[in-house]
Specification:
It is built from 7 helices and 8 strands. It is of the alpha+beta class and about 280 residues long. It has 2 domains: about 120 residues, no CATH class; about 70 residues, no CATH class. Strands 3-4-5-6-7 form a 5-stranded mixed sheet, with no helix packed on it. A hairpin with a 5-residue loop joins strand 6 and strand 7. The longest helix has about 50 residues. The radius of gyration is 31 Å and the shape is elongated. The two termini are about 25 Å apart. The N terminus is likely disordered.
């Protein structure tokens, strides 16, 4: 008798088997025979981690190309023979055409580097927001909402530091720095993304579990409980995440797509349970 019961008992799905089984209309029937919560949470943890890794890779790639463009702009705009020297409270440059003026008309902002005194300070009033770097100080001007111009000055002599750097050294240092920080961005980004993804998905799972629990009760699904509903949503979120990502890539994303996916998943599984 015990042998017959052992043979007739359905084998619980492993964590890896669930990645394929969750797409089938009989998934809830197979999940109903598995009372081990560790496998359910293991599946949730695994696909959440995989999702966080993929998002982190995308963020890392974007950060990489941004760093490459930044370093490229440095190399192209700062001659290798250029030299910046800071000594005895004085800033000076060599082999750099001054003044260097960078403006942003849409934000009423200008940044000026002039260590040789060619930029006329009478032009300051032409700009609301300004950063002016001279040989002996840095001036920051900000236009407040009232229209008043707030001016702050910082003397280079207040900084007890001496250094000299060439354009080639600066470019090499920037490339080395961004090469190291990319790994930091990926690692930190992964943990931040994983944390927020996990919290969001748990809250989302509780929300959808209420609807699925109510739906199963209305349809008269046998022995349907909130616990089973929550466990089902834990698994179905893999399908939702995958399809929403695919729709976004194809530019087919539409309002309510996640809700529609859950309705279809529970609908076909409920229909299977009713028939069997």
């Amino acid at each position: 008798m015990n042998l017959k019961l052992q043979i007739g008992r359905k084998t619980p799905l492993s964590v890896w088997q669930r990645f394929l089984a969750v797409w089938r209309p009989d998934f809830l029937e197979k999940l109903e025979n598995d009372l081990d919560e560790n496998r359910a949470w293991g599946f949730w943890f695994l696909y959440t981690t995989i999702a966080a890794v993929l998002v982190s890779i995308v963020v890392g790639v974007v950060a990489h190309f941004a760093a490459v463009d930044f370093v490229k702009n440095i190399v192209e705009n700062i001659p290798a023979e250029a030299r910046v020297k800071f000594q005895d409270g004085k800033l000076s440059t060599q082999n750099i055409s001054e003044p260097i003026v960078w403006t942003e008309k849409t934000e009423d902002f200008v940044a000026v580097v002039d260590t040789i005194g060619r930029f006329e300070t009478t032009r300051f009033d032409e700009f609301g927001n300004m950063v002016f770097v001279s040989a002996d100080k840095i001036i920051i001007r900000q236009r407040e909402n009232s229209g008043f111009i707030k001016t702050e000055e910082y003397l280079w002599s207040d900084f007890d530091v001496n250094f000299a750097v060439t354009g080639a050294e600066f470019s090499a240092g920037a490339e080395k720095f961004f090469g190291k920080i990319e790994l930091v961005i990926f690692v930190v980004g992964f943990f931040v993304i994983w944390f927020f993804l996990a919290i969001f998905r748990l809250i989302f799972a509780l929300w959808w579990s209420l609807f699925a629990w109510a739906g199963g009760a209305i349809l008269g699904i046998r022995d349907w409980t909130f616990e089973k509903s929550f466990r089902a949503v834990q698994h179905f979120m893999l399908v939702s995440l995958s399809l929403v990502f695919l729709l976004s890539v194809l530019d087919w994303q539409f309002w309510g797509s996640t809700s529609l996916i859950f309705i279809l998943l529970f609908g076909m599984n409920f229909l299977h349970l009713k028939k069997h």
